[in-house]
Amino acid sequence: KNRKKMGKGKSHDPKDGKRKEKAKMHLKRNIGYVDGVSFIIGSIVGAGIFVSPTGVLKHSLLNIGVALTIWTASGLVSLMGSLCYAELGTALPFSGGEYSHIKRGLGSLPAFVFIWTSTFTKPASNAARALLFAEYATQPFYGICPAPEVLKKCLALAVLWSLGILNGCSVKMAAWVQTVFTLLKMMALSVIAIGGIVLVGGRKESLARFEDAFSSEIPNASQIAEAFFQGLYAYGGWWSLNYVAEEMKNPSRNIPLTVMTAVPAVIVFYLLVNISYLTVLTPKEIVSSVAVAVTWADRVIPSVAWIIPLSVAVSIFGALNSSMFTLGRLSYAGSQSGHLPVLISMLNVHSCTPAPAMIFSTTIASIFIIPSDLITLTNYFGFSAWLMIGLTCASLIVLRYREPHLHRPYKVFLPVPFVMVAMSSFLVLAPIVWSPNLQYVYAFLFMLGSLIVYLPFIHFKLHFAFLDKITCHLQLLLEVSPADESTESKCE
């Protein structure tokens, strides 16, 4: 009897429960509010705002008023999208972002097309970022001469694998690196925002530029749409938080709060930085500049102008870190659902991180670095990003009607996802209609090519026994184990 009582007491011991919870193999909730904010800001702010905020101004026909309006409108569209994602992230707080939501809302096949496309396009964009980082990091040592291609590629590979290993070893360390680099890039943007307005704000010709902001030629509808494309591209990355929803502390509170802090902060900074550029440089100078922030620094802070190329490198490094972190989670979620090899969803037994998923995505990115021509092919997949955003917002609408009783800690105003679906449809079709290119056909055929893999391996569950042996050996080598399924068939 005593033994039974002792046994009963043991099972109700809260410490024992906590120990069992710790012993479970699953992703740990290590990402707090500050980490979440730095992940979103870090993903959005790359090199674009420093190097090429010229696209919006150029397509606005150098009309300052129209350009600033488009920067604001692009930010508001991004905010609307991120609020839709916040509802999905709080209702379904699982790794994998859009992939998990599309699978739940629209089914297995659209989700597989998404992961098939993303497995190539997202590592390619990481490879492009790593090469751009190498370009900015090596340039100061070579002055006006171009840096050797081999050196840039070696440095890009070194950065990729350093971040891949860091993300595969420790979530807390990766989140800390992200926070530090986000703070550094926000300091650089603050220098530009405040510097331009304070130092040169008193110039009469600069102020006159803003007084008759809408006075120059007004662009037509297609030019405004093109400028809008450029603006939305600069805000790309607002969707990143949903990839790490499974690791957020208190997701039902932190996801909406993080989104409502980070995206408006970026909108404000982007507007201030653009106003700063326009107070120092004329619209024509901005459009003709190769790197706007560098030209700005030469005018305003010539003695420490080197700080800007350094800031660009820091900014790219931070964006690359957050992009690699989220990509690892996408591969992990795809493997858990049986859409990628089972090894990829295993977690390291020491750190509970998706180390195989990180190795998988970093290896694909490395392949893209070696022959750089491959990256240019993925430029034609730009429309696929908006196609997936449209499908994700459509999933939200479907789930509202199909699962009305699903617990939703945060609910977005229902017309917002409808607007986002319409917006996405326009952004997918417009470039294909306005400038038809054979490459778009290839990109579309590549996406359809996913059926060749989906039907035998996913639908008919074709399986090769020798793969189990390879998985077993790699499992022992990498010291990884399958994750405990905390939520039964969570994405079904």
Ordered list of secondary-structure elements with their pairings:
Layout: H1 2-11, H2 14-23, H3 33-44, H4 48-51, H5 54-59, H6 64-91, H7 98-106, H8 108-142, H9 149-169, H10 171-200, H11 204-211, H12 221-234, H13 251-280, H14 283-288, H15 292-300, H16 307-336, E1 346-348, H17 355-369, H18 373-377, H19 382-402, H20 415-434, H21 438-448, H22 450-459, H23 465-478, E2 480-482
Antiparallel strand pairs: 1-2
Quick structural summary:
The chain is mostly helical and 492 residues long.
Distance between the termini: 45 Å
Largest sheet: 2 strands, antiparallel
**How would you write the strand order of the largest sheet?**
1-2
By DSSP, the count of extended strands is 2
Low-confidence stretches: 1-11, 486-492
* Structure classification: mainly alpha
Series of secondary-structure elements, N-terminal to C-terminal: HHHHHHHHHHHHHHHHEHHHHHHHE
Report mean pLDDT, rounded to a whole number.
Answer: 85
What portion of residues belong to β-strands?
Answer: under 5%
Q: Tally the helices: what do you get?
A: 23
**DSSP helix fraction:** over 70%
Shape category: globular
Radius of gyration: 24 Å
